[in-house]
Design goal:
Radius of gyration: 18 Å
Protein name: Two component transcriptional regulator, LuxR family
Distance between the termini: 32 Å
Number of strands: 6
Strand order of the largest sheet: 2-1-3-4-5-6
Oligomer: single chain
Helix content: 40-55%
Largest sheet: 6 strands, parallel
Keywords: DNA-binding, Phosphoprotein, Transcription, Transcription regulation
Order of helices and strands: EHEHEHEHEHEHHHHHH
Organism: Williamsia maris
Shape: elongated
């Protein structure tokens, strides 16, 4: 783990729509030498306003949130034209190629999944603050493929049915495609089983699929897993 050798403090802003998850990350990073949590937000508008107000060094950025998710946060802060733009490190439950590529193209400096250990997350924050690019294992390949023209990830806005899904519905779709049960999805996303059932019903309706097996094939044809 990288440990700061001077007295400089890296100021961090947390963006995630799950308050319990934010609390855990805040507790983990606050105990680390050289890191200071200067603010947090659970939606795009609050995140943009908070980042502009606190001017952090690094923003830990959730990818999937209502109103455009992490990409909308990056663009909103960029449009504010503050003197010093922060560095963005995506911290997401998703390891899908299209999410990684879209977030990096928007301006993030790294992308790690929420399975990362606390000490490794702290190290990743320090590294992006120092100018490094940081990715969870196997995700770097998605970015390299994208910028060399070999990416299998679908280009955005070419699939009306897919584009009609909300970020949360996309999360449910990916987990359904991986064979997760409703109970497992509920535990993974920290929502109720009834909420999962509602999202699954919306996904089936919007994608015009009759059942879960058909939905799984539909997702596979779009490289969603």
């Amino acid at each position: 783990m990288t440990v700061p050798t001077d007295t400089a403090v890296c100021r961090v802003f947390l963006v995630d729509d799950h308050a319990v998850f934010r609390s855990g990350v805040r507790a983990e990073l606050s105990s680390e030498v050289g890191l200071e949590i200067v603010g947090e937000a659970g939606n795009v508008a609050d995140a943009v306003n908070g980042i502009v107000a606190t001017t952090p060094d690094v923003v830990l950025l959730d990818v999937h949130m209502p109103d455009g998710g992490g990409v909308a946060v990056v663009r909103g802060v960029a449009d504010s034209r503050i003197d010093t733009q922060p560095v963005y490190l995506a911290l997401s439950v998703s390891d899908a190629a299209e999410d990684v590529i879209a977030t990096i193209r928007a301006g993030a400096r790294g992308y790690v999944t929420k399975t990362i250990a606390g000490a490794d997350l702290a190290d990743a924050v320090r590294r992006v603050a120092d100018g490094d690019a940081v990715f969870s294992p196997r995700l770097a390949g998605f970015v390299l493929d994208s910028f060399t023209g070999r990416s299998a990830a679908p280009e955005p806005h070419l699939d009306p049915e897919l584009d009609s899904l909300t970020p949360r519905e996309m999360e449910v779709l990916r987990l359904l495609a991986r064979g997760y049960t409703y109970r497992e999805i509920a535990e993974d996303l920290v929502i109720s089983i009834k909420t999962v059932e509602t999202h699954a019903s919306n996904v089936l309706r919007k994608t015009q699929q009759s059942n879960r097996n058909a939905l799984t094939r539909w997702a596979a044809n779009r490289h969603i897993s």
